Amino acid sequence: MTSLRDAAMTSKAWPFEEARRLLKRYEKKDPEKGYVLFETGYGPSGLPHIGTFGEVARTTMIRRAFEVISDIPTKLLCFSDDMDGMRKVPTNVPNQDMLRKHEQEPLTSVPDPFGEYPSFGDHNNAMLRRFLDTFGFEYEFASATEYYKSGKFDDMLIRSAERYDDIMAIMLKSLREERQQTYSCFLPIHPETGRVLYVPMKEVNAKNGTVTFDDEDGREWTLPVTGGNVKLQWKPDFGMRWAALDVDFEMYGKDHSTNTPIYDGICRVLGGRAPEHFTYELFLDSNGEKISKSKGNGLSIDEWLTYASTESLSYFMYLKPKTAKRMHFDVIPKAVDEYHQQLRAFPDQDAEKQANNPVWHIHGGQPPESHMVVPFSMLLNLASVAGSSDKEGLWGFIKRYAPDATPETHPDLDQAAGFAVRYFTDFVAPERQFRLPSDLERAAIEDLRNQLAALPKTDLHVQFEDPADALQTIVFAVGKEHGFEPLRDWFKALYEVLLGASQGPRFGGFIALYGVDETIALIDRALAGELVA
């Protein structure tokens, strides 16, 4: 029997492919620091968003895959660039006038507009940590301010002064001519105003480890590069951090990909070994445009979690990370149902197939049991025809379909029922468009109604071993009998006439869930034109 480690060494699942690539980094010698370091970066100028979740979730998937194929310990460091200057005041926070007085100061020097933490940076860092803790990520947190001020970066900052010309040579190639005239990789923190200064250097003294510059008022200052007196511009900071911490792996979005040679080059100039990278594609909104925090287009993490579970979001993040994907509300039902399909399949799979199953990577090899005996898409249709305003209204139907199910024994189904009512109310109901059937469709739907009415008035579970399958056979046969070709036109007619949508559930399962008598009544209303009205 194939072991999981053996399966992982040949698995085509992308986390295992990345883990194997990372393992080659240490095929001759284990890391001197004693562990493999995964890193994710975060700019705390605003609240954590869905991209933050995706980056940490995907990095964690690769980390767990690496732990299967290697005995080298691992760490995940979530690094906050909280020493960046606040370039503009966010529009979604209070005390705007107060914040404007602190523009260009490091985020950890800007007062917290909410009045809860020592600084705005500390507030956003707390939000990040709460965010990560909510989802159960295992990580260590790092603050750029603490690393700069405590001296953890001092050696690399002195080396940056010593190799200033080499760093600048890399950077200047990427800048427009006018920007080249004033650019410096060092950003001094003004001793009096506390602002992050974007000014050219008059001198970088490698021997003394100092920089000399004129401030905006023309006064000359000389500051040590150590102790938090200066920071690096963000691109050099990327490479310096990799070298200082000996980072082994970091992923980032495609919009960073053109900077990879810069990050790598600066890391090497400073004596480090560039980490392994993974570049993922960006998310798109419903119109195919890149999701932007400033625009607010696309789907936020809070919005996703209003209508579906965290695990379904992780499943969506797992799928084809190198392919651009629409991130809109209509992807949620499919993600939920596919996630539970994979959960149900997992226990009966061999090690090779389990290694390729997304739920292995979502749950670190320990996926839970699925109790979703009713698909999310069918719950949505049930909410549609039952007119339920809460999940309790759906449970009467669910119990008839699955007599042994209860909210206590099937908590994921109970949660999904609540999500389904909410999703239906907000998205499905406003878009429903019922239509009258054609003559061909009317004859077929009447035939289906009559065949359902002819069934014995007993419990479906008494009549049939699998009620959903038996009813699907009846529906299928009616469509064939009435000459629908292709047969999907028959099901499309049922959905549009009875449910007001062009797509829908396996219809036999829907009848079993909603009830035979209830479906007959629904057909009668549709044929009488009441649904259209």
From TrEMBL:
Catalytic activity: tRNA(Lys) + L-lysine + ATP = L-lysyl-tRNA(Lys) + AMP + diphosphate
Motif ('KMSKS' region): 290-294
Sorted UniProt keywords: Aminoacyl-tRNA synthetase, ATP-binding, Cytoplasm, Ligase, Nucleotide-binding, Protein biosynthesis
Coarse class of the protein's main subcellular location: cytoplasm
One of the record's GO molecular function terms: lysine-tRNA ligase activity
EC primary class: ligase
Motif window: 'HIGH' region: 44-52
InterPro entries recorded: aa-tRNA-synth_I_codon-bd_sub2 (IPR020751), aa-tRNA-synth_I_CS (IPR001412), aa_tRNA-synth_I_cd-bd_sf (IPR008925), Lys-tRNA-ligase (IPR002904), Rossmann-like_a/b/a_fold (IPR014729)
PANTHER family, alphabetized: LYSINE--TRNA LIGASE
Protein name according to UniProt: Lysine--tRNA ligase
Organism: Thioclava arctica
